[in-house]
Design goal:
By secondary structure, the chain is an all-alpha fold. It has one helix at about 1-45. It starts with a helix and ends in a 30-residue tail after the last helix.
Length: about 80
Amino acid sequence: MTVILILLGIYILYKVVEFLIPIYKTTKRVQKQFRNMQQNRSSENGSYNGNGNSKEAPQPKPSTRDYIEFEEIKD
């Protein structure tokens, strides 16, 4: 009886490990891809000169109006 329980425990442990290893590998691969994407994005958008200023022209600030101006037309 003890031998059967030991074999059953080993089998269950094997199945759990067999399930967790692909999850671990996939997680590492996704983390690596995210790091690569962040590095690519920072290298493309983060071109800085020695003073820490961007080489590109600054972007204009968006309008702070929350409404659209219009004129009423009378019939």
